[in-house]
Amino acid sequence: MLPRIDLELARKSIVEGLKNYVFQVAGKKGGVIGVSGGVDSAVAALLAAEALGSENLHPVILPSLATPKEDVEDAFLVAEKAGVTREKVEVIEIEPILRCFDKALGPMTHMERGNLAARVRMSILHQRAYKYNSIVIGTGDKSELLIGYFTKYGDGGVDVLPIGGLYKTYVRQMALHLGLPERIAFKPSSPRLWPDHEAEKEIGLSYEIIDEILFGLFDKRLKPEEVSKQTGISMEIIQRVINMHLKTDHKRRPPPVIEPVIRYL
After folding, report:
1. Residue 99: exposed, middle, or buried by beta-carbon count in 10 A (0-12, 13-18, 19+)?
2. What domain range includes position 122?
3. pTM above 0.90?
4. Is 37 annotated as a binding-site member?
5. 130 with 210, same domain?
6. Are residues 11 and 112 in the same domain?
7. Residue 206 assigned to a binding site
8. What is the pLDDT along the chain (265 residues), one digit of tens a residue?
9. Distance between CA atoms of 249 and 243, rounded to whole angstroms?
């Protein structure tokens, strides 16, 4: 069982840290964020609005054929709660762009097209960030980062991760703390890369279990056997999570520079 955290302290520290990074470190005027109607982007958007001011936050909705209409409405609700009027929220349909890729590249698997969709979305967000002299605010949480559940150079290609230090369990709690409705706080997580796409179904584990394992391994620094003993989770499942972390290590690192052997003549 994950311990409770001081949500208000976490909120304040994220807001101050994000404000300092955007304005002082990066020297930008604001932030661009993709809002999907899911809990991660909702929490990230509200924290960003508080940190940067709603006038400096540029929410963008990027639906495809895989995006349910209710997600779009929830994304508008989040933007409005962040202080951005419906009229100022950009909606950019990515399906016409994806169809151009379909024509150019030929048949793709749903995984190939889904990852392409994530990278198209990120390209648009970076274009908008350049336009507004802003940075791209990421919506990934600690659980997703540690198991590598994101598209490299897609939703992983951001400038800053305000909720990257919160496990999914805590993000859901933060959503309620910030006054978001339960239907958003507990909506099944999904990158919406293809129709009926749900994260936990694809991963094969609930985030509650994943978070318990990750907390034991990375926060408490326990050995896998100790995590199993304390949580009652089987070693087989714990090893699955460890393998996800190890196999996605490259996603969390910058590209390695292969250093040549230099001999000056």
Report:
1. exposed
2. 7-200
3. yes
4. yes
5. no
6. yes
7. no
8. 799 999 999 999 999 999 999 999 999 999 999 999 999 999 999 999 999 999 999 999 999 998 999 999 999 999 999 999 999 999 999 999 999 999 999 999 999 999 999 999 999 999 999 999 999 999 999 999 999 999 999 999 999 999 999 999 999 999 999 999 999 999 988 877 778 788 888 899 999 999 999 999 999 999 999 999 999 999 999 999 999 999 999 999 999 999 999 999 9
9. 10
Q: Report yes or no on 146 lying in a domain.
A: yes
Is 168 labelled as part of a ligand binding site?
A: yes
The response to whether 251 counts as a known ligand-binding position is: yes
3-class SS of residue 90: strand
**Cα-Cα-Cα-Cα dihedral sign, residues 117, 37, 142, 133:** positive
41 is in an annotated binding site: yes
> Does a structural domain hold residue 1?
no
User: Does residue 248 have a known ligand-binding role?
Assistant: no
* Same domain, yes or no: 101 and 226: no
Distance, CA of 255 to CA of 147 (rounded, Å): 19
Does residue 152 have a known ligand-binding role?
A: yes
